[in-house]
Amino acid sequence: MWITSGAHAGIHLVFARTDGPGREGISCFVVGRVGIAALSIGLAEAALGLGARYARDRKALGRSLTDFQNTQFVLADCRTDIDAAWLLMLRAARLLDSGDRAVSETSMAKLFASEACGRVVDRMVQVHGGYGYSSEYDVERIYRDARVARIYEGTSEVQRIVIARELLRALG
């Protein structure tokens, strides 16, 4: 469940139950910090899609929620957060693929993506109003899943320590 000294490993093998309708079993996943960034981006994308569709279909004062400027600003901020996280994740992945250790870059990608995911999902729960906290809506599950991304593979605070350490090392 918890990985002691996980920040020192390049990859981790995670075995998880992948039971579902008509199937049961265990799958093996290869994870690194950049993988958590990608997972966070996927969660944020899913939440944004759900929230945008809900806002388009939900009416208030006889208008779609997406007709209101505040909702448009919320959606724009979410899209910007996700795209910025995606770019950091791509840079880290490119460096890793080229053989670079990319210690700082993977930590920045994980930190920003998991924090951005939290912001996006929180906003989409808010767009759903009370329904966003109901287990009848998928955004509620995503809300719970998104929170743990800021904890595993090194908390956001640990990522900040790694980033600062690498920055100070580079300064000499």
How many strands, which pairing sense, and closed or not: the largest β-sheet? 2 strands, antiparallel
Q: What is the tally of helical segments?
A: 5
- Give the class from helix and strand content and strand pairing: mainly alpha
How many separate domains make up the residues?
A: 1
Provide the CATH architecture: Up-down Bundle
Strand fraction = 5-15%
CATH-defined fold name:
Butyryl-CoA Dehydrogenase, subunit A, domain 3
Give the distance, in angstroms, between the N- and C-terminal Cα atoms. Answer: 37 Å
Account of the 3D structure:
With 172 residues, the chain is mostly helical. It has one domain: Butyryl-CoA Dehydrogenase, subunit A, domain 3, CATH 1.20.140. Helix content is 63%, strand content 9%. Strands 1-2 form a two-stranded antiparallel sheet. The chain has a two-stranded antiparallel ribbon with strand order 3-4. The longest helix is centred in the middle third of the chain and has 29 residues, at 69-97. The mean pLDDT is 90.
Key phrases:
mainly alpha, 172 residues, two-stranded antiparallel sheet, single chain
